[in-house]
Amino acid sequence: MIGRRRIVAVFLPHWPMDRLFRVLNGKGGKPVDRRLPLALAAPAQGGLRITARNRAAAEEGIVQGQLVADAMALCPRLDVREADPAADAAALKRLADWCGRYTPWTAPDAQGHGEEPDGILMDVTGCDHLFGGEGALLDDLVARLRGFGISARAVSAATPGAAWALARFGEAPIFVLPAGEEERALKNLPVSALRLSPNISEGLHRLGLKRIGDLYGRPRAPITARFGPEIARRLDEALGRASEPISPEMPLVPFRARLLFAEGLTRIEDIETATERLAVELCDLLTRDLKGARRLELLLFRVDGEVTKILAGTSAPSREARHIARLFREKLKQAGDDFDAGFGIEAMSLAALTVDAMAPSQGSLSDERHSAEDIDALIDRIGNRLGPARVRRLRPYASHIPERAVVAVPAMGEAPPASSFISPHDWRIPDLQRLDGVVGRPLRMLACAEPIEVTAEVPEGPPHSFRWRRVLHHVVRAEGPERIAPEWWRRDEGRTRDYYRVEDKEGRRFWLYRDGLYTRDAELPRWYLHGIFG
Amino acid sequence: MSGTSKAGLLADLRARIAPYEAPLREEETRVVSLGDVIDETLPSGGLRCDALHEVAALGYGDIGAAMGFMAALVSRFTEASPLAPVLWCEGSHTPFDFGGLYGPGLAAFGLDPTRLVIVTPSREVELLWTLEEALRLGAFAAVVGEIDASARAFDLTATRRLQLAAEEGGSPALLLTGHQNVGTSAAVTRWRIASAPSSVGLRLEGQSTELPGRPRWNVTLERCRGAEGGASWLAEWDRTRLEIAVPHRRVAERKKAELKLVG
């Protein structure tokens, strides 16, 4: 089982430096000459200390851990910049995403050579043949990274431990270690290649155990007694005697389809066509397992090492390739001119992140069911193009406060729990409506009731006239009051409202309310307009 | 030529342009009834289900009445296809800035609010796209869009696309436009709506003011393909029968109603 796994460890020896140059020589800015001495520094014991430097600085005698003051004395033209470990880590994560072009399983290697992560781990089991074998894959990877200006070493082995050690301490920058040869290959490497904490490897050094080979065949009990179980565990992991759990960057998705292109795609039409092909492939996988996709992710791997991620959702499980491709077409179309393919897209992957069970034969159902599916598909497309919050359905809610009597829920995905819902036929239309013709609730309701100026007021009755949005309305007919008391069990509730349906001289009908009562409340009641009738 | 009457000339011209107008295909189109009185004026004997219809307000203040008439039309269309949902694209800017559609109010027009899919696009282009896609699907009882006629994206081409999409999918496209809708359009009908004071002066005992009556509008069929435009009615919404009614004011009726209520 372990023997069949193939892990690639990528080591980026000058990652913070390479990243800085990538940023500096990226867009807009003045290019910086790599040949000038440059160093990164961060606060440490005793002041600012050098954390990384380029080759020119190293030739001037600058070393890691040096105080900046000393370094400046050594080389006055040294350009010192602030180290940014957080940005380094974030950029490394993006680079790990980009490595997803080789395998879905990639992760920034959390254990750096120093304190910060400085590498990437990839599980290429069963992927290497797509690139012409492991050696070709590693060559391609390192060449591409060099093209980005990132120096890298890459080693593949059967265990993460062996790959990690050889990438950092091995001789060849690109190396494929066949399974079963770990013991021989690691023999001459220093013990720190076992990913031990610094004080443990120091302790081993003091005992004269400097190379990994020195540990082979040694009784374990004394070592464990002295240093804890870490050494034995790391050794077993590196040699493939114990399996090592690894947390992948991308969730392991069984439903993923990928495509590589000989030349970078730049036209959006080509990308759409490729998406359709991916969708067909993905739907085959889904059909095989009787699943339907709920959440989908399309990754576009750009030639320049960036990854564009596009997400789409469906309101009901789907494995119809046309529908899935259309969802992404809307998204791409929406990006329109903003869409940046960089120098081209060289690989794409489409994955179903969330899936639901889906019965196999839905084609044979009646037309009605079919059109319901079509409507779901349309809602998905609208939601994916305009945003899920812009497509909603209305649901009644058990409350007599008008603005709370109805909730708008996103039409995509599931409705919120139905605990406090009442039957859909109960829309809380008051009894007053039994009077012939009178429509008890407005067609449209303002999100926030707007204050109105009541010019001729009768106490405890409807106004004679009111001014709303600068227009004066003379009330000719009125019905009310319909008293709506606040919900006492809610703390933030306002005052009692008296609602009136009024009609002005021109026949326009409005829904007004008086906030508060004359007799009870000390403050004078105010009037609001809450909705308009059809 | 001098001998021909004006009417004869017009008839001649009409006959000449008739082939260029889209065929009406009366025998196969589904229609909904807007009541006998209005149906008589419509060439298809009702409101066509596979066409674009525009509802415009007379003035800014009449948008409420136009919304009411629109709700009445949608209600009629949902009755014709009782299971299909309705897609309603809400406008949020002037002249539609009266808040969102309110479920209980729609229910009063006989529209089940749960059947509604409400879309709120941020731009007119998105709105027109949504309408077109929904129409082509042909699975909705009605597809409603609220669009300000003064918007740049709203032109003859846009209406023509909607009309074609409505024909293709066989579902009605209903546009609620502001009062500024005066331009050319490919719509089959355009209705101009103004608010009208309600008729029946019901009065509860001990109250000085009358109660508002049924929703009532001044409805003008401003243009209608294949027929003379300009007919006008005073129409009401009868919410017990869920119909558009064109009442004749009769004093006797009014008195009877008053008696019944007080008694």
Q: What do you see in this structure?
A:
The complex is a heterodimer of chains A (534) and B (263). The model of chain A is unreliable at 362-368, 414-425 and 430-438 (pLDDT under 50). Chain A contains 13 helices and 21 strands. Chain A has a seven-stranded antiparallel sheet with strand order 15-21-20-19-18-17-16, with no helix packed on it. In chain A, strands 5-6-1-7-8 form a five-stranded mixed sheet. In chain A, strands 9-12-10-11 form a four-stranded antiparallel sheet, sandwiched between helices. In chain A, a hairpin with a 4-residue loop joins strand 19 and strand 20. Chain A has 534 residues and is α+β, with helices and mostly antiparallel strands. Chain B is of the alpha/beta class and 263 residues long. Chain B has a single domain, classed as 3-Layer(aba) Sandwich (Rossmann fold), CATH 3.40.50. Chain B has seven helices and twelve strands. In chain B, the strands form two sheets. Chain B has a nine-stranded mixed sheet, with helices on both faces. At the A-B interface, helix 13, strand 13, strand 15, strand 18 and strand 19 of A face helix 3, strand 5, helix 4, strand 6 and helix 5 of B. Strand 13 (391-396) of chain A pairs antiparallel with strand 6 of chain B.
Features:
heterodimer; A: 534 residues; alpha+beta; Alpha-Beta Plaits; Dna Ligase, domain 1; 7-stranded antiparallel beta sheet; 5-stranded mixed beta sheet; 13 helices; 21 strands; elongated; B: 263 residues; alpha/beta; Rossmann fold; 9-stranded mixed beta sheet; two-stranded antiparallel ribbon; 12 strands; 22% strand
